[in-house]
Design a protein that fits this description.
Helix 9 links the parallel strand 8 and strand 9. A seven-stranded mixed beta sheet has the order 4-10-9-8-7-5-6, sandwiched between helices. It has a four-stranded mixed beta sheet with strand order 1-2-3-13. A three-stranded antiparallel beta sheet has the order 11-12-14, covered by helices on one side. It has two domains: 173 residues, Alpha-Beta Complex (Aspartate Aminotransferase, domain 1); 248 residues, Type I PLP-dependent aspartate aminotransferase-like (Major domain) (Aspartate Aminotransferase, domain 2). The chain has 431 residues and is an alpha/beta fold. The mean pLDDT is 95. Helix 3 runs parallel beside helix 11. The protein starts with 5 loop residues before the first helix and ends with a helix. The protein binds ligand KE4. The site of ligand KE4 has 20 residues, from helix 4 and helix 5.
Length: 431
């Protein structure tokens, strides 16, 4: 972005009154030593910035835009709902409809409560797990990001990792002592933690497919191991499916791997781009929530009719278009193109994909945890790659510690053009 662009002028103004000029740190482009462009409009798989530049978008507003931007069914549903009022502060029929859909689609969910962000979803699930078990400690994994919940901003991924602050200031030491942070994909360390204090571990929370330190996968049997050890110790297993939910499969990662958590945090796709999160799971646990139970949790705009209408329209459209099958077709095409470009560039790269989620590590070494991902992110190759792609009209997440998203609006010609740009960027990074 040139210094005299409108985006740069807007960013200067933003920095005067908004911390870092952004309302969420990852948008600041700090990890790629740049500053953000401002978007005027988005449609399908494209963004247009305020200077008129057109970009093929693989950030997808960090996951919600699974149909692409401004899909007609969502726009129509929100417009219609808005004519009848935008918030009531009383229950509305949409809340039951989306709750029923989620209960039907997500294998382990018997009851659900809507909230307004992924952070609220994981925060509430943790409090509920502590209230249900009467225990305090929580196990999380290095590199997994669960939103900016005080007790989970420890060795966190995403923006915390991007900005090198995996342990945020402002979190009392007392909070952090209740969080046990372990490397992902290391069963022995989990066994040791439970041996040392299993009777005080309320829950184990994880992204079943970690996607906030780049994208990597649970080793064979790892999720089943976590399911077994938590059940044996009376601890709850919480899947944070804010990103994987309704994306890697209709029923999320728990459907893909056939492992049933006790609680699931959700968000992003279920809001159709509007502010929504949700948490749900076993009815006997969820019934501990106020007003029936002792665990308090609330929200002025939880179940907001516009957000519910947007989420319902998006989810129904995905089902109608057999979206998960189509996204696998698009993903397969994208992956074969990227792998061919990597081979032609003759470089050491590792490419991970599950469905419509992907990540390119700039290292030939396999990536199974945060340390591997950090090692792969060394050397600054990502920054040059990112900027080459952006200048060529392809917008990837501005950090090596994020995941890319394909959407239903990425057509063959978009993929072909993107692969050409990626090939040029990989070749340039070799020169
Ligand atoms: P929100 O509070 O941002 O809605 O959700 C937090 C969250 C929880 N769990 C997982 C697995 C997540 O990926 C997220 C948020 N994801 C980041 C992108 N890696 C949001 C982008 C941002 O922070 O601006």
């Amino acid at each position: 972005m040139s210094g005299n662009s409108l985006s740069s002028k807007l960013y200067q103004s933003a920095c005067e009154i908004i911390p870092g000029g952004v309302n969420s740190p990852v948008r600041a482009f700090r990890n790629v030593d740049s500053s953000p462009f401002f978007v005027r409009a988005a449609k399908g798989c494209r963004l247009w910035d305020v200077d008129g530049n057109e970009l093929i978008d693989y950030v997808g507003t960090w996951g919600p835009a699974i149909l692409g931007h401004a899909p007609i069914p969502v726009i129509e549903a929100v417009s219609e709902a808005a004519k009848r009022g935008v918030s009531f502060g009383t229950p509305n029929p949409f809340e039951i409809e989306i709750a029923r859909l989620i209960v039907d689609w997500v294998p382990s969910v018997e009851k659900i409560r809507m909230v307004n962000s992924g952070t609220e979803a994981t925060m509430s699930a943790i409090r509920l797990a502590r209230g249900f078990t009467g225990r305090d400690k929580v196990i999380k994994f290095e590199g997994c990001y669960h939103g900016h919940v005080d007790s989970l901003l420890v060795a966190a991924g995403s923006g915390a990792l991007t900005h090198g602050e995996p342990d945020s200031a402002g979190v009392p030491h007392a909070f952090a002592t209740q969080t046990i942070t372990l490397p992902f994909n290391d069963p022995e360390r989990v066994e040791q933690a439970f041996a040392a204090g299993g009777d005080d571990i309320a829950a184990v929370i994880l992204e079943p497919i970690p996607a906030n330190a780049g994208l990597f996968f649970p080793r064979d049997g790892y999720l089943e191991f976590l399911r077994d050890i938590t059940a044996r110790h009376g601890s709850l297993l919480i899947f944070d499916e804010v990103m994987t939910g309704f994306r890697v499969a209709k029923g999320g990662a728990q459907e893909l791997y056939g492992v049933m958590p006790d609680l699931t945090a959700m968000g992003k796709v279920i809001g159709g781009g509007l502010p929504v999160g949700a948490f749900g799971g076993r009815a006997d646990i969820m019934d501990q929530l106020a007003p029936d139970g002792p665990v308090y949790q609330a929200g002025t705009l939880s179940g907001n009719p516009l957000a519910m209408a947007a989420g319902l329209a998006q989810l129904h459209e995905m089902e109608k278009q057999r979206g998960w099958q189509r996204l696998e077709e698009i993903g397969t095409m994208f992956e074969s193109g990227v792998r061919e470009a990597m081979a032609q560039a003759g470089c050491d790269y590792t490419f991970h994909r599950v469905g419509s989620m992907f990540c390119l590590f700039f290292s030939g070494e396999e990536v199974f945890n945060l340390d591997d991902a950090k090692a792969a992110a060394q050397g600054g190759a990502f920054k040059a790659f990112f900027h080459h792609c952006l200048k060529s009209g392809v917008f990837l997440a501005p950090s090596p510690y994020e995941t890319g998203f394909l959407c239903m609006a990425h057509a063959e010609e978009d993929i072909a053009r993107t692969i050409g740009v990626i090939g040029e960027a990989l070749a340039a990074s070799r020169r």
